[in-house]
Design a protein that fits this description.
- With about 260 residues, the protein is an alpha+beta fold.
- Helices cover about 25% and strands about 30% of the residues.
- Strands 1, 2, 3, 4, 5, 6, 7, 8, 9 and 10 form a ten-stranded mixed β-sheet that branches.
- Helix 3 runs parallel beside helix 4.
- The two termini are about 20 Å apart.
């Protein structure tokens, strides 16, 4: 266990290996409600998440308040990485596959890859973003890894789904920092941009699937703006398939 300071507050970092009893709470509505429903239908995650908890439990973590309540949780996985942009995983999906296969085969990792960080709906506004990022930095350091890489999901990009991620990444505030708050959290902690993963995560489904997930009607072929999606969902009525390709931004923390 480790105490992490953020602002005038603090939280205790515990791993899933230490406190597996927090898993059920982390899968509760307080946390799952922070994500759009379609995000829970990535086939890569469905296949590899259980492996990650089984073989990499020391890199799945929880942030606990002084009273023992669960503030936030996160997932990360060690990966083999040569340290160059060219050797980065293709994105979130590929990082999870690379890490879980490596864990099963005993491949020696070079870096820790951040996968997700979620704050309880009861803790919005407490500024836990830096604490979550630092938690993964500490886990990487404790494991003797030299870097933390993250396929960052820009937190405000869903408000601008028609803006290409390459252009969105150029948006800056007057103080020169990233416009996007989550990119800015990483930037303030010293991270640098390595690359853009234009197809970091792929989620596909039928018309019935997307209408269930989004409560929208998918009647004809075209691009659909979906709440919580960073880019439009492309629906092909003839094939009865809608495809969502999520872009992320690869960022590097040297430790």
């Amino acid at each position: 266990m480790r105490v992490i300071e953020f602002g005038q507050q603090s939280a205790t970092l515990v791993t899933h290996a230490e406190r597996p009893d927090f898993e059920d709470q982390a899968q509760g509505e307080d946390f799952l409600s922070q994500w759009p429903t379609f995000m829970f239908h990535d086939p890569i995650a469905e296949e590899h998440y259980p492996i990650m908890y089984e073989r990499c439990s020391e890199f799945q973590f929880y942030l606990i308040d002084d009273d023992g309540s669960l503030l936030a949780n996160g997932n990360s996985i060690p990966v083999a990485w040569a340290g160059t942009p060219e050797d980065l995983p293709g994105g979130w999906d590929d990082a999870l596959v690379r890490g879980s296969i490596g864990a099963q085969h005993g491949t020696r990792p070079d870096a820790l890859c951040a996968l997700q960080a979620t704050v309880s709906s009861h803790c919005d506004g407490r500024g836990l973003g830096p604490a979550l990022t630092n938690a993964m930095r500490f886990l990487a350091q404790d494991a003797g890894l030299a870097s933390l890489i993250a396929p960052v999901r820009p937190s405000l990009k869903a408000m601008y789904p028609l803006i290409p991620i390459d252009d969105y990444l150029l948006w800056r505030r007057e103080d020169g920092l990233f416009f996007d708050p989550w990119l800015r959290v990483h930037e303030r902690l010293g991270a640098s941009v390595l690359a853009i993963a234009h197809e970091s995560m792929a989620i596909s489904g039928s018309r019935a699937d997307w209408e269930t997930w989004t409560k929208l009607r998918f009647s004809t072929s075209g691009e659909y703006i979906v709440d919580g999606a960073l880019t439009p969902v492309v629906f092909d009525a003839d094939a009865d398939e809608g495809v969502y390709l999520e872009p992320n931004v690869w960022m590097l923390h040297r430790l």
